[in-house]
Write a structure and sequence with these properties.
CATH architecture: Up-down Bundle
Number of helices: 6
InterPro entries: DinB/YfiT-like, DUF1572
Helix content: 40-55%
Low-confidence stretches: none
Mean pLDDT: 93
Pfam family, one: DUF1572
Number of domains: 1
Radius of gyration: 18 Å
Protein name: DinB superfamily protein
Distance between the termini: 44 Å
Number of strands: 2
Largest sheet: 2 strands, antiparallel
């Protein structure tokens, strides 16, 4: 029986699609971050919530842990300080963007050389075995959820009109060519 999963596991187009989605989420996150004032990047609703800068710090920490030595060592590295990722202690937009860029750079440097055959390989995260395909899907979903948080926070915090990162409200018909 030839399943869709088997077809995907044999397809380099899956990797291309995944890389395209990661690039899209990176771009969306950057679009949200760019619209917010420097001060607003560090705003927290309360002590249990995260600022935009803290979300960036967490994403980058996760990326460094998951993508460093991806095929050979557990994705939850012993050196990762996950709880520290949620401390709102980044000092500036420039520092935050450097942290952001380093995480994404590592992700792309790790995924771009992979082949379709690599999708079948087993990797470990917190001691649990996953296919590379599953690990990539898990990270896509994780990063998309946090980029959604960045966009939501950005819309609340922007001082002035929000520049839509997709189809602006009221423009659906125009997008459809009607």
């Amino acid at each position: 029986m030839h399943s869709l999963h088997q077809e995907i596991m044999n397809s380099s187009s899956y990797l291309e699609s995944s890389l395209e989605l990661f690039r899209t989420y990176k771009s969306l996150g950057e679009g949200a971050l760019a619209q917010v004032s420097d001060e607003s990047l560090f705003w927290q609703y309360n002590a249990d919530s995260n600022s935009m800068a803290t979300i960036v710090k967490h994403l980058s920490g996760n990326m460094h842990s998951r993508w460093t030595d991806f095929l050979n060592s557990d994705g939850e590295k012993p050196w990762r300080q996950r709880d520290g990722e949620f401390e709102n202690d980044i000092g500036s937009r420039a520092e935050m963007m450097d942290i952001w860029e380093k995480g994404w750079t590592l992700l792309f440097e790790t995924l771009e050389p992979l082949s379709a055959a690599d999708l079948k390989k087993t990797v470990y995260i917190r001691g649990k075995a996953y296919t590379v395909l599953h690990a990539i899907n898990t990270q896509l979903a994780h990063y998309a959820s946090h980029v959604g948080q960045l966009i939501y926070l950005g819309k609340m915090l922007v001082d002035g009109p929000w520049n839509s990162l997709s189809i602006p409200k009221g423009h659906s018909q125009k997008y459809l060519g009607k």
